[in-house]
Each structure stands twice: as structure tokens, then as C-alpha cells.
Automatic annotation (TrEMBL):
Belongs to the transferrin family. Disulfide bonds join 27-58, 37-49, 123-205, 168-184, 181-188, 233-247, 341-370, 351-361, 395-664, 442-520, 476-490, 487-503, 560-576. Residues 1-21 form the signal peptide. It comes from Carassius cuvieri (Japanese white crucian carp). Its main location: secreted. It comes from the Eukaryota. GO terms for molecular function: metal ion binding. GO terms for biological process: antibacterial humoral response; iron ion transport. Gene3D superfamilies: Periplasmic binding protein-like II (3.40.190.10). GO terms for cellular component: early endosome; extracellular space; plasma membrane; recycling endosome. This is Serotransferrin. Keywords: Disulfide bond, Ion transport, Iron, Iron transport, Metal-binding, Repeat, Secreted, Signal, Transport. SUPFAM superfamilies: Periplasmic binding protein-like II (SSF53850).
Length: 671
């Protein structure tokens, strides 16, 4: 009798923490929000309410785990992404219908431009509001129109008070900055006690002559009076109010829910989805406005896991918020230096040993993180395969140099470098293209060209529901979900237990890259390897590293759809391959193109070590590279439409778009 009771109690003990762990702790910052949150918790019992005094206090409590989430505006999305909080947006309000443009409004009969604002009088909807302060002041500081070198120089408010002769900025300290309240008609507060508060107030301030320019949202201008006013554009021109989409500072981003990077965003989204929209986006019953979420009826969109504050806000808004906090961005020194992005200790060692003038080495954990750092100007370049060139292109980066493996085509001319993707098996293993299903597979990496994109297209391209995950029994595809079958065969760094390198998309994982995938096959961990056509010849018959010293090229063969029931020699890759694809290329930002190309051209002219790797293979560049050639055609021409079509087709039949592509292309309030 005791055994069932003990078992029941044991199950109960296990169940309780699990139930508790599912709670979503929402941070609220007022009694009104607390009241609404407690009501919403009756609709979704997994919601728990935690009261703090401010957004900043909420962000601190989320970082420490005391709370899980809060909805914030664009400025606070930026703040949350800073290193002292390290939070990210996980869910966004869908605000397409109410997308606001921050504008500078002036009377039509004036003749000054955005470059002539110094000494003018100004009207602002409200201090620290998006349209009245954050966006216009941040952008004017970023563009060096309002001089301010940061808080160590003086408070931003003082810099603004020295820039405008007088203003009405409701909500600012009247006692400290008297001239910033001089144009107001009330108590200079963001309330009904100030006649010129809000967008409507800023417009009336301009109309009545208490200011010469009004900073506000475009939809605050009465339609009946728009013909009497114009907008100041950032390029120095002026346009009609109706042309606000072509003449504005920035768009106000949709509000977003922020949380820790390791938070269970799916659970948070699920809890919110349980609440009726009529309750979630309504605040009147609780004595306030925009409590927890915006009041206009809207929807919530779950964001990709790669989403961070920079990707969410986009570069212009992000940089304006940086300027609002840190001052005028310093112009980069004109020394032509570049930062090369590396993803492993071995790459770090090679990068440091090259001692290339004007090139520094910047370490990250993955190619995807490198792409994000290049976008944020925290790094400048790295070499990636065609599939990753495509991803980088979706994030606004460009290919500028390509690896050339044919010496006769160096330095210029000849056919653009490319390679064949092949499926390699051990001789006499019995594995053919027709018997491939259910076998164990070795891949260079998730979303890599030879290792993933091409075999995914060749195997699953015409089969709905097919993915490499369900086609193979297990495999090693570094970068895949560690819990998936595509990480089961990975080896990591070789440690027995607690190996954080297992299935990591860097050379810390022994089965990563071309050499790693071939090693996975050679060590009989997997039964097929998807690699570049030159790898078998490069790693056998005494030409490979220590682990490959006893391998014989004759022991490996190719399989392909053209020979579904047989195998062919590894040298017959021209007639038995999965695809011919673009060679690896160097990616960077357009504004860094000139410096990256110059540094690399000088490096390959002055060093014979650029394309050689010690200890490991293919560090920084493929070892088979003879030279780097500059790419002058657009990304679409470099990859070719046929190759792009192949990549995009795998997105529809496989696991869908890579997370970073989703993060870079998601349409919020920016289109």
C-alpha cells in the first residue's frame, strides 16, 4: 500500500516545480498596470504580476530573473540591449496601421531648412516622447546638427538649450532650463495643465508663433490645415505634409516585449495568446491609457530567436538612440583598418600570426554572430560559403572578394571560381543514392552550402514534408539544435563529459566544416558525408593532417541521383555531383568595401601564409585558395538566380528560412 502512495507523492513533488516554472512573471510599473495585470491573470492563470517603480527597474529585475517580461517603446528596446541589461525583443505589437513618422513641421511661408535650425525657436510634443524628443533630438545629434559630445561634456538638455534660442518642451525641468519652457503657455508639464503639450499642443505652439519649428508625429497635423505647412527633410529640402513618407526623421518602432536571451519566449507568447485581444489591448477600465500594451486594437507577433535590439530597431533608429545617450558619433579614423571576424581559437591563432598591417582580429562564436557584428560595425569582414553569402545579403551585407582555386585565373580574368558538392561514402559500404534514407549523415554545418543547402535541395527538393532531420536517422550538422538528431553524432572538442563545443558551428567541434564532415565519415561515425569535391584528394594518401595520415583515396566513392544504384570513383565528380556552386566569398558592409579589398589585396601580395593552415584546415580561407579576386557584380549576379532559386526552394520544403534571415527581413513598422 505504501509503494503507490510514495510513487504518487514523488510524482507530485516533481510536478509542482514544473507547474511553477511555467509562470510568466510580468513586470508592471504603476498601480493602474498592476490592476490590469491582475485582471488578465484571471484569464491566463500562468500570468503573474510584479510591481516595480520604473521601466529601468523592470529591466533590472528581468535580468536577474525576478521578472520575465515587459512591453517597452523603441528607446527602451535600445536601452535593454545594452551590455548592462543584455535583453532582447521577443514579441512585437503589430502596429502597421498606426505607424507614426517623426517630423519637423514649419510654416509654408518660411524659407529655412533643417541645416538652419540653430538659434530658432522650437515646439515639442513632450520631453522624452518619441516624436517630440527621442527621435528628432537623437537624429539631429547623430547628424552633427546639434553639437553634443556626451554627458561628460554637458547634459544633453543643456546642449539643446544652447542650440535653440527658446522652446516649449513640456515635461523638461523648468527650473534648470528656463528657456526650454519659455514658449509654453502653462506649467510646462506633459499634461492638460500645459496648453502646448502633446502633438496637438506642439502644432498650436507653432501655429500661434511661439515656435518656428514643431517636432511631433505626422498624424498630429490637422488635415484641414496641412496646406499651410511644410516638412523639413534631412537632405536640406522641404516637402508638403502629405509627402511625410519621403520627408521624416525616423519611424517610431512598434512597441515590443523584452526578456532575457535565454527566456522561454514561446511560453511567454503562449500565455499572452490565452488572453482575449479585447482585454489585452484595452486600459480604460483600469484608470489609465496604454497599460501593459497599446490600447488601439492590435495583434502580437512572435519574433525570431536571432532578433536583437539592433535588428529590431534597424540601423538609423539604433544609431539615433545611441547618439541620444552618448553624443555625436565620432568619425572613424581614416586609417583604413579593418576587423576580421573569427569563430574559433585556431582561427584566432592564425589571424594573430599573420600580422597583417591594418587588420585586427575580432572573436565571436558563430558565422551568424559575425554577420550581426558586421552589421553593427563591431567587425568588418569574414569568408563564408554561398549559402551564408545569401543570408548575409538578406541582412544588407555584400560579397567583395571570392576565393579562386585555379592559379591560371589569378589575379584577374578566367572563369569565376566554383566547386562541386559531392556525397561521399566508404567503398563497399553498400550505401547508394537509392538506399540513403535512414542512414547516418555528416554535414559541414547547418545552412552551409555543401553540407546542408545542396543536399537538402537534392534529397528533399520535390518531396513535401521531407527534411534532412527526418530523412536521416541521425547525423552531425554543427549549428543544429543540440537536442535534435542532427547533433547526435557530433564529437565536440573530444572531452568525455560537459563538452560545450559539441555541435557548435566552429572548429571547436571536430566534425565542423569540410574536414570535419569527412573526418566524421572516415572515423565511421557517419555513413555519408556532404562535402566539396576536392576534399577526398586533399585529405588522403598522406596529404592530410595527423588524424588522416592512414587514409587512402581509393577507399572513398561518390553517390548521386544520376547513378542511383551504384557508386563511382571520387575523381568522377564532374559527372556525379549534387550541384556546382559559387566559391567562398568575403562579405562586408558596402561602406567598408574599399578598405577590406585594399587590405586583402596587400595581404596576399605580401604573405605566403594567407591560405595555409597549421594544426587545422581551412582557417580564415580555404587551403585550396590560390588568390582572392575582387567581386564587382551585384550579389544576385554573383550567386546566380539558379542558385538563389535552389536555396529559396529548400526554405519551402525544409525547416523554413534560417532564423537570421527571418530577423533581418521581418516586416514591422519599417517598410
Amino acid at each position: 500500500m505504501n509503494i503507490p502512495l510514495i510513487s504518487f507523492l514523488a510524482c507530485l513533488v516533481v510536478a509542482l516545480p514544473s507547474e511553477s516554472a511555467q509562470k510568466v512573471k510580468w513586470c508592471v510599473k504603476s498601480q493602474h498596470e498592476l490592476k490590469k495585470c491582475q485582471y488578465l491573470a484571471t484569464k491566463s492563470p500562468e500570468l503573474e504580476c510584479h510591481l516595480k517603480s520604473s521601466v529601468t527597474e523592470c529591466m533590472i529585475s528581468i535580468k536577474t530573473g525576478e521578472a520575465d517580461a515587459i512591453t517597452v517603446d523603441g528607446e527602451h528596446v535600445y536601452q535593454a540591449g545594452l551590455i548592462n541589461y543584455d535583453l532582447r525583443p521577443i514579441i512585437a505589437e503589430d502596429c502597421k496601421a498606426v505607424c507614426s513618422y517623426a517630423v519637423a513641421l514649419v510654416k509654408r511661408d518660411t524659407d529655412f531648412s533643417i541645416n538652419d535650425l540653430k538659434g530658432k525657436t522650437s515646439c515639442h510634443s513632450c520631453y522624452q516622447s518619441p516624436g517630440g524628443w527621442d527621435i528628432p533630438i537623437g537624429r539631429l545629434v547623430k547628424e552633427h546638427k546639434i553639437p553634443w559630445d556626451g554627458i561628460d561634456d554637458m547634459p544633453l538638455e543643456k546642449a539643446v538649450s544652447q542650440f535653440f534660442s527658446s522652446s516649449c518642451i513640456p515635461g523638461i525641468s523648468k527650473a534648470v532650463y528656463a528657456n526650454l519652457c519659455q514658449g509654453c503657455q502653462g506649467d510646462c508639464s506633459c499634461s492638460d495643465s500645459e496648453k502646448y503639450s502633446g502633438d496637438g499642443g506642439a502644432f498650436q505652439c507653432l501655429k500661434s508663433g511661439h515656435g518656428q519649428v514643431a517636432f511631433m508625429c505626422h498624424d498630429g497635423v490637422p488635415s484641414s490645415e496641412r496646406q499651410n505647412y511644410q516638412l523639413l527633410c534631412m537632405d536640406g529640402s522641404r516637402k508638403s505634409v502629405e509627402e511625410y513618407k519621403d520627408c521624416y526623421f525616423l519611424k517610431e518602432p512598434c512597441h515590443a516585449v523584452i526578456s532575457r536571451k535565454d527566456a522561454d519566449s514561446e511560453q511567454i507568447y503562449k500565455v499572452l495568446q490565452q488572453i482575449p485581444a479585447s482585454d489585452l489591448f484595452s486600459s480604460a477600465a483600469f484608470g489609465g491609457k496604454d497599460l501593459m500594451f497599446s490600447d488601439p486594437p492590435t495583434e502580437l507577433t512572435e519574433l525570431p530567436k536571432s532578433m536583437d535590439s539592433f535588428l529590431y530597431l534597424r540601423e538609423d533608429y539604433y544609431e539615433a538612440m545611441r547618439a541620444l545617450r552618448d553624443g555625436n558619433p565620432k568619425d572613424p579614423p581614416q586609417d583604413g583598418k579593418i576587423q576580421w571576424c573569427i569563430i574559433s581559437h585556431a582561427e584566432q591563432q592564425k589571424c594573430d600570426s599573420l600580422q597583417i598591417p591594418r587588420m585586427e582580429c575580432r572573436r565571436t562564436s558563430s558565422v551568424e554572430e559575425c554577420i550581426q557584428k558586421i552589421m553593427r560595425k563591431e567587425a568588418d569582414a569574414l569568408t563564408v560559403d554561398g549559402g551564408q553569402v545569401y543570408i548575409a545579403g538578406k541582412c544588407g551585407l555584400v560579397p567583395v572578394m571570392v576565393e579562386q582555386s585555379d592559379q591560371q585565373s589569378c589575379p584577374d580574368g578566367g572563369e569565376a571560381s566554383s566547386y562541386y558538392v559531392v556525397a561521399v561514402v566508404r567503398k563497399a559500404s553498400g550505401v547508394t543514392w537509392n538506399t540513403l534514407k535512414g542512414k547516418k549523415s555528416c554535414h559541414t554545418g547547418l545552412n552551409r552550402n555543401a553540407g546542408w543547402k545542396v543536399p537538402d535541395s537534392a534529397i528533399c527538393g520535390k518531396t513535401p514534408g521531407c527534411t534532412l532531420y527526418n530523412f536521416f536517422s541521425k547525423g552531425c550538422a554543427p549549428g543544429a539544435d543540440p537536442k535534435s538528431n542532427m547533433c547526435e553524432l557530433c564529437k565536440g572538442s573530444g572531452k568525455a563529459v560537459g563538452d560545450e563545443s559539441k555541435c557548435k558551428a566552429s572548429s571547436e567541434e571536430k566534425y565542423y566544416g569540410y574536414d570535419g564532415a569527412f573526418r566524421c565519415l572516415a572515423e565511421k561515425t557517419g555513413e555519408v558525408a556532404f562535402i566539396k569535391h576536392t576534399i577526398v584528394g586533399d585529405y588522403t594518401d598522406g596529404k592530410g593532417p595527423e588524424w588522416a595520415k592512414d587514409l587512402k583515396s581509393e577507399d572513398y566513392e561518390l553517390i548521386c541521383p544520376e547513378s542511383p544504384d551504384t557508386t563511382v570513383k571520387h575523381t568522377e565528380f564532374v559527372r556525379c555531383n549534387l550541384a556546382k556552386v559559387p566559391a567562398h566569398a568575403v562579405i562586408t558592409r558596402e561602406d567598408a568595401r574599399k578598405d577590406v579589398v585594399k587590405v586583402l589585396k596587400e595581404a596576399q601580395a605580401n604573405s605566403d601564409k594567407l591560405f595555409k593552415s597549421e594544426g587545422e584546415r581551412n582557417l580564415l580561407f580555404s587551403d585550396s585558395t590560390k588568390c582572392l579576386q575582387e567581386i564587382t557584380q551585384p550579389l544576385k549576379e554573383f550567386l546566380t538566380q539558379e542558385y538563389i532559386d535552389m536555396i529559396e526552394k529548400t526554405y519551402t520544403t525544409g525547416q523554413g528560412k534560417p532564423d537570421l534571415v527571418k530577423a533581418c527581413t521581418i516586416k514591422m513598422c519599417f517598410g
